[in-house]
Amino acid sequence: MAAGSANTAKFYWGATINAGALVGDLVGINDFTIDATQIDVSTIGANAYREFVGGKYQATFTVEVFWNQSAHGSLMSDLLARTSRNFELDFQNGQVTGAAIPTSAAITATQDDAVRATLSFQVTGALTIAATSSGP
Asked: pTM of the full predicted structure?
């Protein structure tokens, strides 16, 4: 990140996209991954090479926040209840929206440092991926 530039990543979690609550104290979006499965459709004995077709997609993402129980407690409740909610990830040059289920939370507390939580999510259903302008 260039000197003087601000972290523009944002994470919203809520009932409806664009109306979800901004998850404050975001340290960063650690990763956002989309994988596509491949289905083996090789004919046995036809030749020595395998053939594949594209299968279904799955996506996961992980965010890190400075943990605040009063601000982030609903995320923990959703994890324990296995509740799917809509989300929005805003990056400097793009945006991803969809629905996800929280899959894990790792809270780290060390002496003389802020309490942090790493929260992981499994996307369920289709995603919308859009480019946004980076501004002036």
From this structure: 0.79
